[in-house]
Amino acid sequence: MAEKLNLPIIDLSSSDQASTAQTIREACVHYGFFYLVNHGVEDELINKVFDESKKFFSLPMHEKMKLTRKENRGYSPLFAEKLDTSAKFMGDLKETFNIGPIKDLPHSVLNQWPSEEFLPSWRPTMTSYYDKVISAGKKLLTLIALALNLDETFFEKIGASHNPHAFLRLLHYPGEPASLHEETYGASAHSDYGMITLLATDGVRGLQISREKDTKPPVWEDVYHVNGAFIVNIGDLMERWTNCLFRSTLHRVMSTEQERYSVAFFFEPNEDCIVKCLDSCCSEISPPRFPPVRSGDYLEERFRVTFLKA
Ligand SMILES: O=C(O)CCC(=O)C(=O)O
Ligand SMILES: [Fe+2]
């Protein structure tokens, strides 16, 4: 049985920056997860993204396969990815669609879009959502910088949030009859790879976190949906920057009988940004645990090992 979990709630519109930054710090140190409210992305737009996502995943398979994932953009069918690389089962019971940077040339031309004939509102809806979540993410990064006792422009100055390598990912978990496969997950246990993830969920249960990476067996706790809130979590690159002060928490999505949709936004640093332990997070007695790494190289390698096919 999973435990009940009360994640901190961060109000992005609060005028009290100091206390918001302090709550973010506590959330990232203890959970690596929090809820984000008043983030500036309207409910109406979020609902539209879910509607358009459902329309896309309902298309015949041969239409979806015309947009098969290339350069990490486009459609991946069920079992294409296995987020828990150590597990033996065949892959995750989910289908996905990825959209990469939209305005950042030459990356923007790599995106694939469903035909306007079938889905006329798809592209403008996704583009608008992408832009709005980027704005929310940039604002959140200024508070995360304050939470780390850095200047609020830190992530901008080191080039992380300028033309970020951010990916919008639509997810569809079709669900399965109970006990069909003991060891099938919608998304198997993993931590996210990058800087921060902003997740919108549809209210169907399934997402769980395990706070202590090294506890065996892991203790799983349910993350509840909160209307209008993003579920934000810290990724591995942020964990590397902070020398594990902020945790990139293990999470998974259980496969249940109920169909589930979610929309993840992976706000990753600019590909050329070098992620190196922050001075304030290391010392002689606590040296950096990870060597510096170029963000683009790190992310590419993580995709290489988790994708079994497109
Ligand atoms: O669908 C969800 O709730 C979470 C998905 C997720 O963890 C991921 O795609 O990295
Ligand atoms: Fe994830």
From TrEMBL:
Coiled coil: none annotated. Residues 164-269 form the Fe2OG dioxygenase domain. GO terms for molecular function: dioxygenase activity; metal ion binding. Keywords: Iron, Metal-binding, Oxidoreductase. PROSITE patterns: FE2OG_OXY (PS51471). Belongs to the iron/ascorbate-dependent oxidoreductase family. This is Fe2OG dioxygenase domain-containing protein. It comes from Aquilegia coerulea (Rocky mountain columbine).
